[in-house]
Amino acid sequence: MLDSPIEYLKGVGPQRGDLLRKELGIATFGDLLQHFPFRYVDRSRFHTVREIAAAPDEHQQAQLRGRLTAPKLIGEKQARRITATFSDDTGSMELVWFKGLKWVQQSLKHGEEYVVFGKPGAFKGKLNMAHPELELASVWDSGIEAALQPVYRTTEKLAARGLTSRAIWKLQKALLPQIAGSLPETLGAEQVQWLGGITREEAYRQVHAPVDAQRLDLARTRLKFEELFFIQLGLLRNKQLTQQQVRGNVFAEVGEKLKTFYAEHLPFELTGAQKRVVKEIRKDMGSGRQMNRLLQGDVGSGKTLVGLLSMLIALDNGFQAALMAPTEILAQQHHATLSRMLQRMPVVVRLLTGSTKQAERKSVLQALRLGEVHIIVGTHALLEDRVVFDRLGLVVIDEQHRFGVAQRARLWAKSEVPPHVLVMTATPIPRTLAMTLYGDLDTSIIDELPPGRKPIRTVHRFDSARNAVFGFLEEELAKGRQVYVVYPLIEESEKSDLKDVTDGFESLSRRFPLPRYAVGIIHGRMDPGTKDYEMARFKKGETNILVSTTVIEVGVDVPNASVMVIENAERFGLSQLHQLRGRVGRGAEQSFCILMTGDRISSDARTRLSTMVRTNDGFQIAETDLRLRGPGDLLGTQQSGLPQLRIADLVEDQELLQQARQAAQRVLDIDPALSAPQHAPIARAIAERKQQVAWGRIS
Ligand code: ADP
Ligand code: MG
């Protein structure tokens, strides 16, 4: 029944069926059923024309009853439209349509009584309503209308063919009686009970044709829970299977290298959080199971060092380790940092990136294969097939959310027993997202910054205050500090953005002239060699000001840089702003972040800026970011690996998500194989979902 092609549903047919498939991906009865309303309107109330005319702005949407007269097609070309007069006992207004004219013209009936519903507006001082929903009053009175009406997502093309939200609703109502008995329960009886006793079938019925607000609420909760529950169950089963089936290399040795490094070469005392996390990692890698661990920590919390100590454990047990970074600059920096810290230890660290020269590449690859390289640092280049290890034991992935799931999986192919994997995030991810995205990983959190850090002072300044800002930079430069000035660059190819950076560079060079000052510039269009050169100059303090695009966004570490100026700050996302700000505040000096914007900024941008000014806490910022942008945008939709949610919402349903995860964990705890009779519905549902759902992945 649910697999029946959508065109067979009464009221659809081949043409509309085709459109539904193309526009909304609705190919079957089941797909239609899963096309959930995104909101509901209360249609129990009526207004009069006079009431609306008195305060058109107060009525987001209004419902009226009256007579429709004089529909006519007027205007030329772009301005072509259909208008009609709508009157009740208190006055009249104009109804107007700009789209789907053919269909509207055919269906409007002059002189009939209608119920209209829509957003009132005004045109040339006269009350009107564009694209109202219409129903003949006689049909309305025949009683099929409910007080609570669902609103469905549709498209212009669909609406032009009469498939408005309202028409989709009618299709749902035609479908509901037919699916009786074909929606088996997927949850255990206890869970259904806990969810208010709403069966799956009833839930679908209530969602598309609610009887009252309370039942509707229960129904929606039940469907959301179900959706989240199966995602979490999938993730947790995955984790369970990995733990049972995938053997991990046992790193049992306490180890000479780790001990020596710790005792003699560690430049500072570890923070309590770093110690705890290293312990967690060590225990994991010694357990005989393969480690899949996510390390969350705010910018500057010292994740690199944790990565290094973990790699030393691998080395102590006779294995090689790899550290993978998302950009060349970052890979080079990591390579330099590790080489420096390990310079008096018998550890060979090498670098492999996309721009490694042929001869060097050959030598690195060979040394890797022979086991002569202990730690390899690199970019995506490490994933290539020709990169072969002698004994790869641990892979540390820095600044994860630029690495896709598929890339993670490729690592597995690199050794017989899969290496332990430690994923470090660039900035914290909100709990709910982490739970959904990395729900099959174990998590460690560094919730403490190294001591002595002064919180960065953040301010928002308008372009009109630029002179004062430059004056401030002058003072900081006079103290010997360095300054970043960052411009947005959404696409590396965008010309106007590029012009912003180069213009900025020129005007700063004029304001801060040689020989007293030196200004450098880095952007994505430069060749890697020049970029390295500029970066190195800044690191060595040969340039005082570095003008750049976001190529320096992630991970770059220059402790003497104490001012971060972000131009057009309104164009950056929150986590990006936070990440950029994290480039300063790395030394002992007081650091500053100056967010520059024009006078006019959107309210979302205002929220982002005020959040930045208010807090330095990456976890808080991540939560706000999630609320502002939604999960897809936060992670970059394509690569995110987030499952498609049809009804649940990772922002609104955080609590339900927790409950779903706990419920899934409980089920697996008492019945790992899902073979107990009370879990039969769950096991059946999983078997049916197998092909459709994308969560069946390995980490
Ligand atoms: P992130 O977590 O953002 O990757 P890094 O690993 O780059 O942070 O560390 C930020 C800075 O803090 C580095 O300069 C690093 O040397 C320093 N650092 C790391 N751990 C400590 C510590 N325990 N005490 C003092 N400084 C530390
Ligand atoms: Mg880092």
What is the compact description of this entry?
The chain is α/β, with parallel strands linked by helices and about 700 residues long. It is about 40% helix and about 15% strand.
Second rung of CATH, namely the architecture of the domain at 256-446:
3-Layer(aba) Sandwich
Query: What ligands can be seen in this structure?
Result: adenosine-5'-diphosphate, magnesium ion
Q: How helix-rich are the residues, as a percent range?
A: 40-55%
Strand content is 15-25%
Structural class category: alpha/beta
At the first level of CATH, what is the class of the domain at 256-446?
Alpha Beta
Tally of DSSP β-strands? 22
What is the CATH superfamily of the domain at 256-446? P-loop containing nucleotide triphosphate hydrolases
Sheet with most strands: strand arrangement:
6-7-4-3-2-5-8
Question: What is Rg?
Answer: 31 Å
Main sheet attributes: strand count, strand direction, barrel closure: 7 strands, mixed
End-to-end separation in angstroms reads 36 Å
Mean pLDDT level: 88
CATH topology of the domain at 256-446: Rossmann fold
Shape: globular
Q: What's the tally of helices?
A: 26
- Contiguous low-pLDDT stretches (5 residues minimum) are 691-699
Task: Kindly describe this structure.
With 699 residues, this protein is α/β, with parallel strands linked by helices. Among the domains are: 44-145, Beta Barrel (OB fold (Dihydrolipoamide Acetyltransferase, E2P)); 256-446, Rossmann fold (3-Layer(aba) Sandwich); 457-615, Rossmann fold, CATH 3.40.50.300. It is built from 26 helices and 22 strands. The protein has a 7-stranded mixed sheet with strand order 6-7-4-3-2-5-8. Strands 12-13-11-14-15-10-16 form a 7-stranded parallel sheet, with helices on both faces. A 6-stranded parallel sheet has the order 17-22-21-18-20-19, with helices on both faces. Adenosine-5'-diphosphate binds next to α13.
